[in-house]
Design brief:
Length: 145
């Protein structure tokens, strides 16, 4: 599987082939689903948070968002999804704090995984994440805590 790992991912130090997202509690692993399709497994520590498999049945590109704590104790937020059909770049992802934290927003740092998956990480605690697709459509998800 062709994998693009940037400086945000650290190779696994254990017996599995997960890559740790630098400074966060999350790691990811590329695997295979049925019919040989690529799958992305997302972990929070040892717990599987999501398994993402691109399919023609789902048109969404923003599939999940959650928050956690960095290794230094500061809050961090993660969004993930799949590339749009026919696109080779992730959507533009922005994290919004909401009224409770001052209504500010932040652009996430993108991590590309394989040819079909993306992650976006932002330092801080956020209420929602928004993904703007190449055609201008906007998807929004509430952050899971």
């Amino acid at each position: 599987m062709n994998t693009v790992l940037n400086q945000e991912l650290l190779p696994s130090s254990g017996d599995d082939d997960r890559a740790q997202l630098r400074g966060t509690p999350w790691s990811v692993r590329l695997s295979r689903a049925t019919l040989g399709r690529a799958a992305l497994e997302i972990y929070d520590g040892e717990r599987v948070v999501d398994v993402v498999v691109p399919t023609a049945l789902i048109s969404a590109t923003l599939l999940g968002v959650l928050s956690g704590m960095q290794a230094d104790g500061d809050p961090v937020t993660l969004a993930w999804g799949v590339f749009e059909a026919g696109q080779d770049a992730p959507p533009d992802v922005t994290f919004q704090r909401g009224r409770r934290w001052g209504n500010t927003s932040s652009k996430g740092a993108e991590v590309l995984i394989g040819r079909q998956f993306w992650l976006s990480v932002a330092e801080g605690r956020f209420a929602t994440a928004t993904a703007t697709r190449s055609n201008g459509d906007i998807e929004r998800r509430t952050v899971l805590r």
